């Protein structure tokens, strides 16, 4: 009798064990199939909130008004575009021409700084911004250092020979070229310009911008970038979980541009990107990873 009872008990225990194993594995399969990707969501890490040309969804791009707005919205970084004026000053302007964002007309490097100062850089965006001027890099460094990070994009580098030295000089004068400053990143679509800048100030973080290319980014390119860059910042339409992981494997970080759609921002964060460049810092959200607040 005891033997029969023992056998029955063992059979029962085995059945419960098998049901448990099958049940758990079935549950895992269901969860995986329901998820939008097989990678673990990025729930813990801080994603840098980078205000593109300042909070340019709310104020005229590359002006103090846009940077103040980004600060108010507690972005981690402002992204700025820099070029040289006729008299060799590093000034903020996205386009090669001043026409779209000022009341002037012509190439940025056809104007001296004094002439650029007379242009209005705010009225095109809205009458409340009349009087905004084109800032210099030095003014931006002095106004925002220690308050918010600054991602400096060198625009049209080949038309501005010597711009890397001028940016490096401005950072050195302010003691902003030290290791792990964590607050300045210099990037460009011109990768030669970034290699030159990195040779000048190897302690300042650098980034390569990559425009959309259906071919993607090869391992050979990533290996090359990693010799002078800390960030690979591609057009967001090229970014998937695999690219994020490959960039991380090469020891670099990734902050794609320019994303103004909430669901795409969330998706990129789930992929584990290190930063998001957006005209709307409020979509990216914020926390205190850089301890500026
Ligand atoms: O920071 C990256 C992004 O600014 C590059 O594109 O044309 O807006 O300067 P663009
Ligand atoms: Ca830019």
Can you summarize this structure?
The chain is of the alpha/beta class.
Structural account:
- The chain has 2 domains: 1-35; 48-284, TIM Barrel (Alpha-Beta Barrel).
- Strands 1, 2, 3, 4, 5, 6, 7, 8 and 9 form a 9-stranded mixed sheet that branches.
- Residues 1-42 and 287-293 have low confidence and may be disordered.
- It has 293 residues and is of the alpha/beta class.
- The termini are far apart.
- The chain has helices at residues 2-34, 64-72, 113-117, 137-144, 163-173, 191-200, 219-225, 241-249, 262-271, 281-284, and strands at residues 48-52, 77-84, 90-92, 149-154, 184-188, 205-210, 231-234, 253-254, 275-278.
- Bound molecules: SN-glycerol-3-phosphate and calcium ion.
- SN-glycerol-3-phosphate binds next to strand 2.
Helix/strand layout:
Blueprint (H helix, E strand, L loop, with lengths): L1 H33 L13 E5 L11 H9 L4 E8 L5 E3 L20 H5 L19 H8 L4 E6 L8 H11 L10 E5 L2 H10 L4 E6 L8 H7 L5 E4 L6 H9 L3 E2 L7 H10 L3 E4 L2 H4 L9
Parallel strand pairs: 1-2, 1-9, 2-4, 4-5, 5-6, 6-7, 7-8
Antiparallel strand pairs: 2-3
The structure holds SN-glycerol-3-phosphate and calcium ion.
Mean pLDDT level: 86
What's the Cα radius of gyration?
25 Å
Assign the structural class, choosing from mainly alpha, mainly beta, alpha/beta, alpha+beta, or little secondary structure.
alpha/beta
Helix content: 25-40%
Termini separation comes to: 75 Å
Helical segment count: 10
The CATH topology annotation of the largest domain reads as: TIM Barrel
């Amino acid at each position: 009798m005891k033997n029969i009872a023992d056998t029955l008990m063992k059979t029962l225990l085995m059945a419960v064990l098998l049901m448990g194993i099958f049940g758990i594995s079935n549950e895992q399969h269901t969860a995986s199939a329901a998820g939008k990707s097989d990678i673990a969501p990025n729930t813990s890490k801080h994603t840098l909130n980078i205000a593109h040309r300042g909070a340019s969804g709310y104020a005229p791009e590359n002006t103090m008004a846009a940077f103040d707005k980004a600060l108010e919205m507690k972005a981690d970084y402002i992204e700025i575009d820099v070029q040289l004026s006729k008299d060799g000053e590093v000034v903020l302007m996205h386009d090669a021409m001043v026409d779209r964002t000022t009341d002037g007309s012509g190439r940025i490097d056809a104007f001296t700084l004094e002439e650029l100062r007379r242009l209005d850089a705010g009225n095109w965006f809205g009458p409340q911004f009349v009087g905004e001027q084109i800032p210099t890099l030095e003014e931006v460094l002095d106004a925002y250092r220690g308050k918010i990070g600054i991602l400096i994009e060198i625009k049209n580098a080949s038309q501005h020979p010597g711009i890397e030295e001028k940016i490096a000089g401005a950072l050195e004068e302010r003691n902003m070229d030290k290791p792990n400053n964590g607050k300045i990143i210099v990037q460009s679509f011109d990768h030669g310009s970034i290699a030159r800048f990195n040779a000048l100030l190897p302690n300042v973080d650098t980034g390569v911008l990559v425009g959309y290319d259906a071919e993607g980014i090869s391992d050979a390119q990533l290996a090359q970038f990693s010799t002078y860059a800390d960030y690979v910042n591609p057009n967001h339409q090229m970014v998937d979980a695999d690219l994020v992981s490959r960039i991380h494997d090469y020891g670099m970080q990734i902050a794609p541009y320019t994303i103004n759609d909430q669901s795409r921002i969330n998706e990129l964060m789930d992929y584990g990107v290190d930063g998001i460049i957006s005209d709307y810092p409020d979509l990216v959200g914020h926390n205190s990873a850089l301890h500026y607040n």
